[in-house]
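## Example record

The block below lists the input lines for one assembly entry, exactly as stored, with component labels intact.
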Amino acid sequence: MNGLHLIADLHDCRCQPSFLLDAIRLEAFCVDACTRHGLTVVGRLFHAFRDATGEPAGVTGTVVLAESHLAVHTWPEIGSVTLDVYVCNFSGDNSRRAHTLFAEIVAAFAPARLEKQEVARGHLGLLQGA
Amino acid sequence: MNGLHLIADLHDCRCQPSFLLDAIRLEAFCVDACTRHGLTVVGRLFHAFRDATGEPAGVTGTVVLAESHLAVHTWPEIGSVTLDVYVCNFSGDNSRRAHTLFAEIVAAFAPARLEKQEVARGHLGLLQGA
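Predicted structure tokens for the full assembly:
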């Protein structure tokens, strides 16, 4: 169950504003990126929020992978995005795939500022030979 | 976009073994727990894996929330679970809800060992007034 979880908060995204609002486009991009980076998509669920006037107001979505998950939430009103890429190593060391997938998605949002953390998942189990 | 992301790896889970295998039951439990803790479910997606002989081999699932997401992956072969509860504070400070939801789900798996991390999401944006 050990794996790599990449966590990022993206600020001042310089992508097209519509990229933070269009759930269908964002879903297609994320699913395609996961597949191209060699991960196995077992499901996807994207939801478009609307504000009080009925206008698009952000997207929340997840791609469920055989190797764990990708999750993204957009905050178009402040040009920000939160991103999670968690890829386990059940079928081999997928760390490189996690990093390259993560980098491609971050690049698509083009943030001026980025906060990033890496969390080793299942580490205790790994150390103890589980 | 600031919020609290609780991350845990659960080991040696002493719950019924079937709880790590039954996607329908796990989905119902997670969705019900999110709702009871005052969060807004906008979607859910749970997938049951099967091994080479067709037997149940773990569950991966996510509950997409208006306040971000819950994600869970089970590893029945080693009695382990990875859990993410990420709850943003768009509608108010939801940190208490995140903690109580997280505690209930952990308790249901009854792990003998737990690794936990708390990640403050969107912190830079918060500090800078975004």
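Residues 95-109 of chain B form the longest helix (15 residues). Strands of chain B lie at 3-13, 41-50, 56-65, 68-75, 80-88, 111-121.
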